[in-house]
Design brief:
Length: about 750
């Protein structure tokens, strides 16, 4: 591995024009594809294998033209104080609004509140439901503008008018904080390298890689049904790892220059050593992201694969474009320490020797020496601290966002509150019961029995009469719970209806299926919970085997996996504390607390595991390199920190800055993921990898690098430490000595 990458690095350095042109051409090609691609189509949210999805499929088959997956809106009206919505003037305003909304060609149906039971019992609130023929993402701005204009006209008469539903769903925005995150990354790179040119290389290559990845996603969005969140997450992860991977290559290049090597040789060795770590670190991230497909949620699978593709591009760019740009930079990228006199020492320009300041142990060396002397205290402090941070995770509640989780400043949230006020909290989460009586002898009797049985259940306010299809073999029954959509009581009611449906099926042969947004949320949460253990087993198992090959050890990969579990649980605890409990919510910009996104735990497990293994590979490969070259275990730990701690710290700060930039997103899911990943990197890099890992290695000693002899013979030698390059040097030196003896 190291020898191949060494040759690749030297080739890219020598053929820099060809290499740079290749990546620029690929970026241009992806950009042209994105510019000429059709707009993304329906980004449907389907959950194969769930009862809610099965019910949606039945509705599409038995109720053609009903647009079960079409966008919906609820225009909610509230009368001024002392008036009723049934007053003549208010009634005329509502009916005029209904007529205006019906004029849009994309509207499938608008219900009149006075004919469809859309007026509250006290007469102060009314609503009109609007169903569209296309999904929220396909809905054109002209339809949204018409919806807003109709509501504004009604407001002019003195009514309070708000709009709920997904018809106003907008493409999420990340805000200016994303640019701030990149700016912080640039500052950290300048401080780390002490050079604008060296600092600019990782940023430039990362932007090129993300540009290719995101442009490709945009070009394929319509074909592969990719949503806007997919490109945002690919940007988030691709930018973070792209900067980090290039950072490690450039840092190793400068270290090789400091050893006195020629620039082409230094580039080859940087790619052969640090590049090997980049390859395996990237592989763990790709495994974790692609592994999300085992959950069998198409949206999550697409997000994972798209982000994994961007990570793969980041790896390839780090191995080829970085050495090519180093060739262009020439002497403007100086050896390590030469330009950083204020930040760690330097070299005397006259003698070329390190100054006294540079010869002093750096911060990484001093910290590692302290940990090696006090491993038990450091280990206990790290584990107890992360354990305390993980405590809130025991109260984790999962759900999917609805209008109730929107900020109170939005019209969607105000409409949600008005409906709760007028019709009860369960009105915002109606349950749709689909009665499939196609195989029943008396469908009408089945419809009647189903409605009666549901009325007898606890927690039900209203059961609408069955609405059969034209064939008369299938009907829908709308059920209004007395609890809010995200409550445990509503979840219990869904299970009660399904239990009652099982009895009906046994007696009459009809399928009773519960669907709707609330039931879909419940099914998604359950499906994700069921998939978590198999996913962990697959991803951690594959990465464990990969790390055994990299480190040729059993205990080091085991320690890496256990450390990951600590950091991800602590990060989930932080997410619960902020987004569910409301701690520091104002600082993060969380206006409304509620359940944590159903996809959050499994997505965090995948991404955080991949990123955690990044730091493990980068840090511990330096330790193993020192160990296999003759140092004792404690010295190897200190040596690894001497060369890697500063760069790993810079990489972690950069990744945290990039992820934190997405906390400013208007999309709740992106905001939560950005916060969760930033906190996870903080815990994993600075507590697990910088404290717990060296403490454990110091306690294990030589046992940390133990591998059964039979397994050592079976495993391929991937040579991450660059031992093959050192052997090649020894052979070259021996040949030089032999030639000198012959001349003598």
């Amino acid at each position: 591995m190291a020898t191949f990458l060494y040759r690749l690095g030297r080739f890219a350095f020598r053929r820099r024009h060809f290499t740079a042109l290749f990546w620029v051409a690929l970026l241009a090609l992806a950009g042209v594809g994105a510019a000429g691609a059709p707009a993304a189509g329906n980004t449907s949210f389907s959950i194969p294998g769930t009862e809610a999805q099965k019910a949606f499929d039945v509705l599409e088959e038995r109720f053609p033209g009903a647009s079960a997956d079409g966008a919906t809106a609820r225009v909610v009206f509230k009368a001024p104080a002392g008036e009723k919505m049934t007053d003549a003037d208010n009634k005329a305003t509502v009916q005029k609004t209904v007529q205006e909304l019906s004029g849009d060609s994309r509207v499938a149906l608008v219900t009149d509140p006075y004919q469809g039971g859309g007026v509250s019992q006290d007469g102060t609130v009314a609503y009109a439901s609007v169903s569209y023929k296309v999904s929220g993402m396909e809905l054109e701005d002209s339809s949204r503008d018409a919806l807003k204009a109709a509501a504004e006209d009604a407001r002019d008469t003195g009514l309070t008018v708000e709009i709920g539903g997904d018809a106003l769903q907008a493409v999420p925005e990340t805000g200016a904080a994303e640019i701030i995150g990149i700016g912080v990354a640039a500052v950290v790179l300048v401080i780390t390298f002490g050079s604008l040119i060296a600092a600019g290389l990782p940023l430039l290559t990362a932007i090129v890689g993300v540009g290719i990845g995101v442009a490709s996603i945009s070009a394929l969005a319509a074909t592969l049904d990719l949503g806007s969140t997919t490109s945002i997450l690919a940007t988030m992860i691709g930018l973070a790892v792209g900067i980090d991977y290039a950072l490690f290559i450039v840092s190793r290049y400068r270290a090789e220059l400091a050893e006195g090597r020629e620039r082409e040789e230094a580039a080859g060795r940087a790619v052969g050593t640090a590049g090997s770590a980049v390859v395996f670190a990237g592989l763990t991230v790709v495994i974790a992201l692609v592994g999300l497909s085992v959950v069998n949620i198409p949206m999550l699978t697409k997000m994972g694969i798209a982000a994994a593709g961007t990570v793969a591009i980041a790896v390839l760019i780090a191995l080829t474009m970085v050495p090519a740009l180093l060739g262009y930079a020439g002497r403007r990228v100086r050896p390590a320490g030469e330009k950083s006199k204020l930040l760690g020492g330097g070299r005397d320009k006259k003698t070329g020797k390190e100054t006294d300041k540079a010869q002093r142990p750096n911060m990484g060396t001093r910290w590692a020496s302290f940990v090696v002397r006090r491993p038990v205290a450091v280990l206990l402090l790290g584990v107890v601290g992360l354990g305390a941070a993980a405590v809130p995770a025991s109260s984790l509640e999962l759900g999917l966002p609805d209008d109730g989780s929107q900020p109170t400043s939005t019209t969607q949230r105000r409409a949600y509150d008005l409906l709760s006020e007028g019709f009860g909290p369960g009105f915002n989460g109606p349950l749709v019961v689909v009665v499939d009586a196609k195989d029943s002898d008396d469908p009408q009797a089945v419809f009647q029995r189903t409605g009666d049985d549901i009325k007898g259940l606890d927690g039900v306010i209203t059961v609408a009469p069955a609405a059969p299809n034209e064939a008369g073999d299938t009907a829908t029954i709308t059920v209004i719970p007395d609890s809010k959509p995200s409550s445990v009581a509503t979840e219990d009611l869904v299970h009660d209806i399904r239990d009652a449906g099982a009895d009906i099926k046994a007696d009459a042969g009809a399928d009773i299926l519960v669907t709707g947004a609330t039931a879909m949320n419940i099914d998604v949460s359950q499906k994700l919970n069921d998939a978590l253990v198999p996913y962990l087993t697959l991803v951690v198992g594959l990465a464990f085997l990969l790390l055994i090959v990299v480190f040729r050890s059993i205990l080091v990969p085991l320690k890496a996996a256990l450390g990951f579990l600590l950091s991800v649980l602590a990060a989930l605890g932080a997410v619960v504390a902020v987004f569910q409990w409301g701690w520091l919510s104002g600082l993060v910009g969380v206006e409304e607390t509620g359940p944590v996104m159903s996809m959050m735990p499994i997505f965090m497990v995948g991404v955080v595991f991949g990123l955690a293994m990044d730091y493990e590979v980068f840090l511990v490969t330096r330790m193993r390199e020192a160990f296999v070259h003759g140092e004792n275990p404690s010295q190897a730990v200190v040596t690894g920190f001497r060369y890697s701690a500063r760069v790993v710290t810079a990489a972690a700060v950069i990744m945290m800055a990039v992820f934190s930039g997405f906390i400013g997103s208007s999309e709740a899911m992106v905001k939560m993921i950005g916060f969760g990943l930033a906190v996870a990197v903080l815990f994993d890099a600075f507590v697990v990898r910088m404290a717990i890992v060296p403490a454990v290695l110091a306690l294990l000693g030589k046992k940390a690098w133990w591998l059964p002899k039979w397994l050592d013979r079976v495993l391929p030698n991937v040579d991450v430490e660059g031992e093959g390059l050192r052997t090649q040097d020894d052979r070259n030196d021996k040949e030089g000595e032999d030639r000198e003896l012959v001349r003598v």
